[in-house]
Write a structure and sequence with these properties.
This protein starts with 7 loop residues before the first strand and ends with a strand. The protein is built from nine helices and 16 strands. Helix 5 (110-123) packs antiparallel against helix 9 (313-332) and helix 6 runs parallel beside helix 7 (160-170). A hairpin with a 6-residue loop joins strand 8 and strand 9 (195-197). It is an alpha/beta fold. It folds into two domains: 8-130 and 285-313, NAD(P)-binding Rossmann-like Domain (Rossmann fold), CATH 3.40.50.720; 135-267, 2-Layer Sandwich (Dihydrodipicolinate Reductase, domain 2), CATH 3.30.360.
Amino acid sequence: MATSSNKIRVGIVGANPQRGFASVAHIPALQALPDFEITAVCTTRQESAEAAARHLGARLAFSDCEKLAQHPDVDLVTVSVKVPDHYRPVMAAIEAGKHVYCEWPLGRDTAEAIRMRDAANARGIRHAVGLQGQMSPPINYLKDLIAEGNGANLLTITGGHTIDALCHCLGEFRELSAFAVSQRDQIPLAGTGEMVAKTVPDQVSVSGIAGNGAVVSFQVRGGVARGTHFLFEIHGDEGDLVLAPTTRNSMQRQTLVLKGARGAGAALGDLPVPGKYRRVPEGVPAEDPYNVAQLYAKLGEAIRDDKLMSPGFDAAVTRHRLLDMIMRASETGQRQTA
C-alpha cells in the first residue's frame, strides 16, 4: 500500500504523552523524523485521547482502535500498549490494510504471534516489531566485524531484548540447554509495597551453539540494583570485542560503546561507529528514542519502496519460538535442538 501524502501518517494506540514507552520513545522519535507525522491517537477514554491529541498536535482522537485503523488519514498504526492488549489493535490495522508497528513481545504467546504474522503477510502490508536493538549502530557494526572474521566463542548477556541482538549478531541457536529459576516466591508491588505471588523466572541461564558454531553463554537476571547491568563479550581467534553501556538503562534503550582488540597482548580500544550505520538525521534524541527512530526510518523505506521489512512479525515469531525452546530445555532438563 502506498501512502497518499508526502509524509507517512501515523496513528498511535496507547499515546499517553505523560507516561509509557510511547511518551519516551515513539513520540520523540516520530517528531524528529521529517518523513512522518502523528495524525491520530487512541487511548482508553475519549477525553484522554482528545487531551493527548491537543498536546501532540494530532488532528484525530479515538477511544476505539478499530476506528483509528479505519480512518483514511492513517497510513501506519503504532501499537504501544501492554502485551495482552496487542492483538485487537494489530488485527484492526491489518484488516484495514494499514501498515503496523507493534511493540515486543508481539503476542501473549507464540500461537498468537503466528496468527498476527500470517494475517499481516496475507494482507500484504509492511509490519515491524519493536526489537529495536537490531537497529543500534554499535550492534550492527559489531555484527559486521564478526562477519569479517572475528568469530565468537563466548558471550555473557543480560536483558530479554538483548537475546535478540545476540542472535542478530551471531545467528540463531542450533541447540541449547537452559535453567529458568524463580528464586523468590513473592515480590513487592511498586508504590504500595504489597507482597504478591511471583510465578515467572527471575534467573535464566542458557548455554548453546549459535550460528556457524559460536559457543554462547548468557544469563538474564531480574532485580539487580547494583553491579553490571549489561555486558556483551565476544572472544575470537583473531581478537576480542566488547559492547558496554554508557548508562544503567536497558540495552535497546541506551547508547552503547564498542571496544575491540586484535592480536596477542593488544589492549581494548574504542571502535568509533561509521556513519553508514546511522539512518536518522542529526538531532534525534539519544537513549530511548534513537533506536526506535532508526526502526521507523527503515520501516518508512519499506513502505515507500514496497519491500519487506525486518525486524517484522516473522522475526517476532522466531524470537517467541526461541523463548519456548529455552523454557522447554529448563522444564525437561534436556538439550533442545532447533
